[in-house]
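Case study: Release factor glutamine methyltransferase.
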Amino acid sequence: MTNRPNQPTYFEAQQWASFCLKAAALPTDSARFLLLGITQLDQTQLLIHYRDRLPTTQWQAFAMAIDRVVAGEPAQYVLGRAPFYGLELTVNPAVLIPRVETEELVDWVLTDATGQAAEKVLDVGTGSGAIALALKHEQPTWQVTASDISTDALAVARGNAERLGIAVDFHQSDLLAQVPATRYDVIVSNPPYIATTEKPAMDANVIDYEPHLALFADHAGLALYEQLAQTVQAHLADHGRLYLEFGYHQGPQIKQLFQQAIPAAEVTLRQDMAGHDRMLRISL
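Here is what the predicted structure looks like once written out:
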């Protein structure tokens, strides 16, 4: 690893960290992410302090954090926090790290609901609570429920809701099996969709640190979509909508699943900002 300075400035500390990450073939933006998180500064404050000495305790914490990231641990787990849709979420290895692509799914739900009355919303497989909390934060009048099969994930999600002061109703459930018996205007889900055969192409830090329960699914990653296709209609209100995220190569298969299961529904694929089919809306 690049020689570690003794008492660096904020700028020198970030520069050292960037060199270390680059040498390890890791994204260098983790240096700034961790420095901002550990110092509790925003971007402007960091620029103002760039030439100041970093306090010893913060420098030691930052150097240790960089060591952990270089060793393979995701920066969000090292810091214990991850941004999502303007919120700062607590994350740990019980939950997936929220991805920016999922913010596009939240955008789609919110855009479709513009001007509509209060809605009942269910987030299936909530993990850290990212989708449910973002929707409730943006639409406080909505009744938002969230479920997950993992009790550890639900503990993280409930903690995030309490810390952020966002009221969401959480339930342990295997997909829709144990959710409240009501009909929802919107159901949204980003379920596990990676086939185990894709492991060789995945980043090591994802396989080593993120929860496999939230990553992998049987039947080429389609198992949970197959279950939802057969059960979701009974949980949707008249004119209800289901929104799904999936892998970039799964769109045509998942679209066909829902067209066959709910022939009267309107099924719409949507691309992400990279131009890949990544989202689906099923409208009754």
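For the exam, be able to explain this: The longest strand covers residues 236-245.
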